[in-house]
Design brief:
Length: 176
Protein backbone atom coordinates (compact mmCIF):
# COMPACT_ATOMS: atom_id res chain seq x y z
CA UNK A 1 0.00 0.00 0.00
CA UNK A 2 1.35 3.40 -0.97
CA UNK A 3 1.65 5.97 1.80
CA UNK A 4 0.77 9.55 1.01
CA UNK A 5 2.34 12.45 2.86
CA UNK A 6 1.17 16.02 3.32
CA UNK A 7 2.29 18.23 0.41
CA UNK A 8 2.97 21.02 2.89
CA UNK A 9 4.39 19.71 6.18
CA UNK A 10 5.43 16.25 4.85
CA UNK A 11 3.60 14.44 7.69
CA UNK A 12 3.67 10.72 6.99
CA UNK A 13 1.38 8.91 6.41
CA UNK A 14 -1.90 10.74 5.90
CA UNK A 15 -5.03 8.98 7.11
CA UNK A 16 -7.59 7.67 4.61
CA UNK A 17 -9.93 10.43 5.81
CA UNK A 18 -7.37 13.15 5.06
CA UNK A 19 -6.73 11.72 1.58
CA UNK A 20 -10.49 11.40 1.01
CA UNK A 21 -11.18 15.00 2.04
CA UNK A 22 -8.52 16.23 -0.39
CA UNK A 23 -9.92 14.14 -3.25
CA UNK A 24 -13.45 15.34 -2.50
CA UNK A 25 -12.51 19.00 -2.21
CA UNK A 26 -9.75 19.23 -4.84
CA UNK A 27 -10.95 16.59 -7.32
CA UNK A 28 -10.23 12.88 -7.68
CA UNK A 29 -7.19 13.54 -9.87
CA UNK A 30 -5.48 15.84 -7.38
CA UNK A 31 -1.75 15.47 -6.86
CA UNK A 32 -1.81 17.63 -3.70
CA UNK A 33 -2.73 16.06 -0.37
CA UNK A 34 -2.80 17.79 3.01
CA UNK A 35 -3.18 16.91 6.68
CA UNK A 36 -6.24 18.69 8.11
CA UNK A 37 -4.25 21.56 9.67
CA UNK A 38 -2.39 22.27 6.42
CA UNK A 39 -5.62 21.89 4.41
CA UNK A 40 -7.27 24.65 6.46
CA UNK A 41 -4.20 26.79 5.83
CA UNK A 42 -4.28 25.90 2.10
CA UNK A 43 -7.92 27.02 1.94
CA UNK A 44 -6.85 30.12 3.87
CA UNK A 45 -9.78 29.84 6.27
CA UNK A 46 -10.88 28.99 9.79
CA UNK A 47 -14.14 27.93 11.41
CA UNK A 48 -14.01 31.22 13.31
CA UNK A 49 -14.16 33.05 9.96
CA UNK A 50 -17.30 31.10 9.05
CA UNK A 51 -18.86 32.11 12.39
CA UNK A 52 -18.12 35.76 11.63
CA UNK A 53 -19.79 35.45 8.19
CA UNK A 54 -22.88 33.93 9.80
CA UNK A 55 -22.95 36.67 12.44
CA UNK A 56 -22.69 39.26 9.66
CA UNK A 57 -25.71 37.74 7.91
CA UNK A 58 -27.64 37.68 11.19
CA UNK A 59 -26.80 41.33 11.83
CA UNK A 60 -28.49 42.24 8.50
CA UNK A 61 -31.63 40.29 9.39
CA UNK A 62 -34.94 42.00 10.13
CA UNK A 63 -35.61 39.59 13.00
CA UNK A 64 -34.53 41.07 16.37
CA UNK A 65 -33.38 37.72 17.82
CA UNK A 66 -31.02 37.14 14.87
CA UNK A 67 -29.80 40.75 14.98
CA UNK A 68 -28.92 40.25 18.64
CA UNK A 69 -26.84 37.16 17.79
CA UNK A 70 -25.21 39.02 14.90
CA UNK A 71 -24.02 41.81 17.19
CA UNK A 72 -23.01 39.59 20.12
CA UNK A 73 -19.29 39.40 20.91
CA UNK A 74 -19.67 35.93 22.42
CA UNK A 75 -22.09 34.20 20.03
CA UNK A 76 -20.64 31.08 18.40
CA UNK A 77 -22.95 29.15 16.09
CA UNK A 78 -20.95 25.93 16.37
CA UNK A 79 -20.46 26.04 20.17
CA UNK A 80 -16.66 26.03 19.73
CA UNK A 81 -16.69 22.39 18.61
CA UNK A 82 -13.41 21.36 16.96
CA UNK A 83 -15.17 19.90 13.91
CA UNK A 84 -18.06 21.19 11.81
CA UNK A 85 -19.47 19.01 9.02
CA UNK A 86 -21.52 20.96 6.46
CA UNK A 87 -24.24 18.91 4.73
CA UNK A 88 -25.57 20.27 1.43
CA UNK A 89 -27.38 19.14 -1.68
CA UNK A 90 -28.94 20.49 -4.86
CA UNK A 91 -32.33 21.86 -3.83
CA UNK A 92 -33.81 20.71 -7.14
CA UNK A 93 -33.26 17.08 -6.15
CA UNK A 94 -36.60 15.58 -5.16
CA UNK A 95 -35.43 14.22 -1.76
CA UNK A 96 -32.60 16.69 -1.07
CA UNK A 97 -33.68 17.73 2.43
CA UNK A 98 -34.55 14.18 3.49
CA UNK A 99 -31.27 12.79 2.12
CA UNK A 100 -29.35 15.41 4.09
CA UNK A 101 -31.37 14.71 7.25
CA UNK A 102 -30.58 11.00 6.90
CA UNK A 103 -26.89 11.78 6.39
CA UNK A 104 -26.90 13.99 9.48
CA UNK A 105 -28.57 11.29 11.57
CA UNK A 106 -25.96 8.75 10.44
CA UNK A 107 -23.19 11.20 11.35
CA UNK A 108 -24.71 11.60 14.83
CA UNK A 109 -25.11 7.83 15.32
CA UNK A 110 -21.53 7.16 14.18
CA UNK A 111 -20.22 9.92 16.46
CA UNK A 112 -22.15 8.52 19.44
CA UNK A 113 -20.72 5.04 18.78
CA UNK A 114 -17.22 6.54 18.98
CA UNK A 115 -17.94 8.48 22.17
CA UNK A 116 -18.05 11.80 20.31
CA UNK A 117 -20.66 14.43 21.15
CA UNK A 118 -22.72 16.00 18.38
CA UNK A 119 -25.18 18.81 17.82
CA UNK A 120 -27.32 19.77 14.81
CA UNK A 121 -26.47 23.33 13.75
CA UNK A 122 -29.06 25.25 11.68
CA UNK A 123 -27.42 28.64 11.18
CA UNK A 124 -25.86 27.91 7.78
CA UNK A 125 -29.24 26.67 6.56
CA UNK A 126 -30.60 30.12 7.38
CA UNK A 127 -27.71 32.12 5.96
CA UNK A 128 -26.25 30.11 3.04
CA UNK A 129 -27.72 32.53 0.47
CA UNK A 130 -26.19 35.66 2.05
CA UNK A 131 -23.57 36.85 -0.51
CA UNK A 132 -20.65 36.82 1.96
CA UNK A 133 -21.62 33.42 3.39
CA UNK A 134 -22.19 32.01 -0.12
CA UNK A 135 -18.76 33.22 -1.27
CA UNK A 136 -17.18 31.61 1.78
CA UNK A 137 -19.01 28.30 1.17
CA UNK A 138 -17.84 28.35 -2.45
CA UNK A 139 -14.28 28.92 -1.23
CA UNK A 140 -14.70 25.78 0.91
CA UNK A 141 -15.66 23.80 -2.19
CA UNK A 142 -19.43 23.62 -1.71
CA UNK A 143 -21.00 23.88 -5.19
CA UNK A 144 -22.77 27.17 -5.98
CA UNK A 145 -25.99 25.31 -6.76
CA UNK A 146 -26.13 23.62 -3.35
CA UNK A 147 -28.28 24.60 -0.40
CA UNK A 148 -26.99 23.91 3.10
CA UNK A 149 -29.51 21.77 4.98
CA UNK A 150 -27.62 21.50 8.25
CA UNK A 151 -24.28 21.11 9.97
CA UNK A 152 -22.99 18.69 12.56
CA UNK A 153 -20.82 20.12 15.32
CA UNK A 154 -18.63 17.28 16.64
CA UNK A 155 -16.30 17.00 19.60
CA UNK A 156 -15.67 15.27 22.87
CA UNK A 157 -18.04 16.44 25.61
CA UNK A 158 -16.52 18.53 28.40
CA UNK A 159 -18.46 16.56 31.01
CA UNK A 160 -19.38 12.91 31.27
CA UNK A 161 -22.79 12.19 29.74
CA UNK A 162 -25.70 11.78 32.12
CA UNK A 163 -26.33 8.11 32.84
CA UNK A 164 -29.60 6.94 31.39
CA UNK A 165 -32.13 6.04 34.07
CA UNK A 166 -33.12 2.37 34.05
CA UNK A 167 -36.83 1.72 34.34
CA UNK A 168 -38.41 -1.54 35.36
CA UNK A 169 -39.79 -3.50 32.43
CA UNK A 170 -43.40 -2.57 31.71
CA UNK A 171 -43.13 0.90 33.33
CA UNK A 172 -45.16 3.59 31.61
CA UNK A 173 -44.41 7.27 32.17
CA UNK A 174 -47.18 9.78 31.51
CA UNK A 175 -46.07 13.36 30.92
CA UNK A 176 -48.76 15.99 31.39
Amino acid sequence: MTTIECSSCRKKPLSKDEVGVCKKMLGKGTKKFFCLDCFASYLDTTVEELNEKIKGAFAKSEEPRLQERGHSQTYCCYYHAPTLVIVSNEPTQWWAAMDCACAMQNIFLAAKSLGIGSCWINQLGQTYDDPEVRAFLTKLGIPENHRVYGCAALGYAAAAPVKERQLAEGTVTIIK
